[in-house]
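Hey, sorry to bother you again with one of my protein questions. A protein chain has come my way and I'm curious about its shape. I'm sending you its amino acid sequence along with the backbone structure tokens. I owe you a coffee for this, so here goes:
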Amino acid sequence: MRINNKNYYFYLLFIISPIVGLINSIRFYKTGSYKNIIWLFVVFYSYTITLPSKDADIDISRRIESFNNEAAHTDYKFSEFVRSYKQDDNWNADFFEPILVYIVSRFFSDVKIMFIVYGLLFGFFYSRNIACILDKLDSSLAKKITLLLFILALINPFWNINGFRFWFATHVYLYVLLPYFFENKKTHLFWLLIIPLIHFSYVFAVAIFVLYFILGNRTQLFFIFFIISVSFGKIKSNFLETVFSYLPGVIEKKANGYTSEDYIEKIGQTKEVGMNWYATFNSAYLKYFAIFVIILCYWKNRDLIKKEYNSLFSYVLFFLGFAFLVSSIPSMNRFITPGLYLFFSFYILFVANNLNTYWLKKYRYWTSFGLLICLVVQIRLGFDTISFLSVFTNPLIAPFFTEENFSLINIFK
């Protein structure tokens, strides 16, 4: 992490008050320090995160239990770890996190150190993906589309670190694609081989990109595919199981795990219990907003898009087409999120460069209220794990008050 001497003020401010340092670095984002300040804030959030009760059946609880179990076995050799990770003579494909947990638990027994490592990894890719868009905007333009920029930042927010594997894999995937589409930078493409090791289901997203890479930009064909997918296409889990039967044994077993009836029923029950109406509204509004804008853009500005945004727009159509196809399967509908991130990346640059377009100006204002609600909802969801220490203390004070920590939502209850 390189610190520019001219920007030391923001780092000093971060040490005094991370939240104030974060806000100011974003306000003056042209200084360039905001990327690292966002990264540092995600790390600080991870350290001060509100931990759930021991009996809570959520991802973060299982991560804490897994780390504590590993840390308790101080004489646990790596060869033993490898043998224990073998399941029915088949290797579990996404072994990135278990190896990470094993390595950290060899040196530390405090689970908060594990969360700092999560924050370092998640925060790096999270901040760089935001920077990939923000750095392309003039400061005067950025102020006019502030709402859209916040929506982008909170599509896969930093508190999704609680479900680390999939959401971290999502940001790594975006870290590969955004420079590829905006700058034709291919140096990140090797990450595509690593992403399924973080979360195996990303074989699906990687396959979409490989297929797109082969087919090229076929905007009209992809738009037809997108419309059919949105209107009629819903692939059932039994169809995917048939497709998976042609894969090698270890891959077939892992893939079927995401589409099995037991897994789908478990996910469905979790959503029924854990998802509030406003969270359901949030995801539905963003999805239909994207569909509405995509159709309008293609209808009103097809030639301009093909000239200036063809690659990214084509891939948005192609990726979301596949994401909507499998969205009826609870374990697969998460792929709408990276599709939305790519869509808003396109939309932000399109709006910034065409602010005076009549139809865009007209529809942008009356859809903004719904986006504002989505922003409020996302922040509200973050309050479940963003703690009092995250907002009102700093790295020098927080370590002395970790036992008295509580989430921000408790302030309003």
